[in-house]
Design brief:
Blueprint (H helix, E strand, L loop, with lengths): L3 E12 L10 E17 L8 E5 L4 E4 L8 H13 L7 E7 L9 H16 L6 H16 L5 H8 L3 E3 L6 E2 L7 E6 L6 H14 L1 H24 L2 H17 L5 H12 L4 E5 L6 E6 L1
Parallel strand pairs: 3-5
Antiparallel strand pairs: 1-2, 2-5, 2-6, 3-4, 6-7, 8-10, 9-10
Helix pairs in contact: 1-2, 1-3, 2-3, 2-4, 3-4, 5-6, 6-7
The chain binds (3R)-3-hydroxy-3-methyl-5-(phosphonooxy)pentanoic acid (PMV).
């Protein structure tokens, strides 16, 4: 039997990261130039229910039953089976490979969940719709993030630019005039869960100061939406740079990220900012 494949893209956050955790809007775009590939091959000679999991990029070679119940891999299998009402799995091997840098703000965790949910449900004969795939990826994101807003699983499941507000219906954004982003990975890994948690501690100490910053972030995301829909890239660039200034105020930028942003601007970018949790990860620059 030939193997079945599924893919999921990476993502960057254009505007509104962190504020999105506090109910403000954010815009995210899929990055199809990097992706996760998940493949499933049936193993008719193995005993029923034996699920081999191979992830050569992280030297993982294991069996599903040996993984802890709260591991993302266990959650994905459990949730897909629950969704499809399938109690027993046939013997299979799942192989996951990825070109998305890990812990770089590019959504590698959510992309892994999306690609696996997709390939597993297809393999079981009932490909799940985006909505269910996104929900399952959200469940697993708790493992990496603690309190995820849901933006990563949404943009990666739907594979389209989204204007996202926690708990609200998803809005897809059309961009009449394509724009080009340069993504620069700082090379420093950043754990989103820790950055979000540390910021929450600061917010609890001085809520008024931070709510004011989140309010300004909301104005930036709403204005960026308009700029995208009007194809006004000069305005969009300015808004990205304004957003970086807010992220500095949130103390999630670093000297290295600031230097990357400055370098992009000096090279002629229309705007640049850190993207994702910060304290490492990547910056994006809008270029013409
Ligand atoms: O996964 P990252 O590093 O792109 O961060 C996600 C964006 C945050 O707003 C910082 C967290 C969240 O859950 O929305």
């Amino acid at each position: 039997m030939p193997a079945i494949y599924a893919y999921a893209p990476g993502k960057v956050i254009l505007t509104g990261e962190h504020a999105v955790v506090y109910g403000r809007p954010a815009i995210a775009v899929p990055v199809h130039e990097v992706r996760v590939r998940a493949a499933i091959q049936a193993n008719p000679t193995d005993s029923k229910g034996t699920v081999h999991i191979l992830a050569p990029d992280i030297s993982l070679d294991t069996v599903l039953n040996d993984m802890p119940a709260d591991h993302p891999m266990s959650i994905i299998f459990r949730e897909v089976q629950k969704e499809l009402g399938i109690e027993h799995l046939p013997a299979l091997t799942l192989t996951v490979t990825s070109t998305i840098p890990i812990a770089a703000g590019l959504g590698s965790g959510a992309a892994i969940s999306v690609a696996i949910s997709r390939v597993l449900s297809s393999f079981l004969g009932a490909p799940l719709p985006e909505e269910s795939i996104s929900r399952i990826a959200f469940e697993t994101d708790h493992f990496y993030h603690g309190t995820p807003s849901g933006i990563d699983n949404t943009v990666i499941s739907y594979g389209r630019m989204v204007f996202f507000i926690r708990g609200k219906p998803i809005e897809m954004l059309a961009n009449p005039l394509a724009f080009t982003l340069v993504i620069a990975d700082s090379g420093k890994k950043s754990l989103t869960g820790k950055v979000v948690h540390d910021l929450r501690t600061r917010v609890e100490i001085d809520p008024a100061r931070y709510q004011a910053i989140f309010d300004r972030s909301e104005i930036i995301s709403r204005s960026a939406r308009e700029a995208i829909e009007q194809g006004d890239h000069t305005r969009l660039g300015t808004l990205l740079s304004d957003n970086h200034f807010l992220l500095q105020q949130l103390a999630v930028s670093t000297a290295h990220l600031d230097l990357l942003v400055k370098t992009a601007m000096e090279a002629g970018a229309l705007g640049a900012k850190l993207s994702g949790a910060g304290c490492g990860g990547n910056i994006i620059a809008l270029v013409d």
